[in-house]
Structure formats: structure tokens, C-alpha cells
């Protein structure tokens, strides 16, 4: 198992699967937004951005998985975005589970850097008309941020396992 995990980052297929899983999640988000009418809030948009970050980070080593630097950029982007996404999902879930969620106000607009106002450039993807405290959808008792916590935790655990397996294998050579 350790050898299998250690070899994954040198294979294009592994990075393609990671990236494809993120783009599938983004497609699902757009389905929920435009087909089911669930408006994303600011926390949703930040989680969407984290998923996009993982997907884009996976594209870099996809083109040259044998190069250490591309894998390093891929690992870094993957883990930073996954951990950041988990933290945002946790905050979002706390807002939804608070007793007076209507009194907890999240930002009206995403707080992207002034040099990259994604919500202005791509409003259909990054605009946040929804309310953070609303629970419009649940599956098996979990709302969207609850599922996103699980998804981000899974991305993080797999990322850490792959990096550790790679380090252990490298150290044993």
C-alpha cells in the first residue's frame, strides 16, 4: 500500500483524477445553484474557490508529474486549499447550527483581493446572493457545509498520506 501511494504522484492519471473530482464538484455546485435554485452564500463561494484551487493545483503536475517542482506546487496547492476549505466549511456549519443563525451575518460580497475581484469578473460563478445561516438542502442529515467538511477532510487525509508515503519511500532509498 505504501509503495502504491508513493508512486501515485508520478502518474498523470492520479493528478487527472484529483483535478476531475474537483471539477465534478464544481459542476455539482452549479447544478445546485442553477437547476435547483440554491443560492450560494459567501462561505459557499469561498468553499467553491477552495475546490477550484485544488483542481487547478492538480493541473500543474498533470503536465509534468516526473518533475519534483511541479509535484511540490501540486502538493502545496492541494493541501493549502483543502485545509482552508475545511476551515471555511467548519465556520459555515457553526453558523448554520447556532441557535440564532439569523443574527449571524456573513459578508454580502466575497472578500477577494482588489487586484482579483472574481465576483465581479465572473459573477455567475463567484457571486454570493444567499444567506450563510440558511439550510436549503440536506442529505442523510448533513447540510452542504457538513458534506463539504467531509470532502475537504478526505482531500486532506489523502494528500497527507501521499506526501508521507513519498517521504518514507524517498528516505528508505
TrEMBL record:
Q: Name one GO biological process term.
A: protein folding
The regions listed as transmembrane in this protein's record are 45-65, 147-168
Q: Which GO terms describe its molecular function?
A: electron transfer activity; protein-disulfide reductase activity
Q: Which SUPFAM superfamilies match?
A: DsbB-like
Q: List the disulfide bonds.
A: 41-44, 106-132
Coiled coil residues, start to end: none
Which residue ranges does the entry give as Periplasmic-facing topology?
A: 32-49
Q: Which domain of life is it from?
A: Bacteria
Write out the GO cellular component annotations: plasma membrane
Chain ranges on the Cytoplasmic side, renumbered to this chain = 1-14, 166-173
Q: What is this protein called?
A: Disulfide bond formation protein B
Which organism's genome codes for this protein? Pseudidiomarina maritima
* Classification of source organism: Bacteria, Pseudomonadati, Pseudomonadota, Gammaproteobacteria, Alteromonadales
Q: What gene makes this protein?
A: dsbB
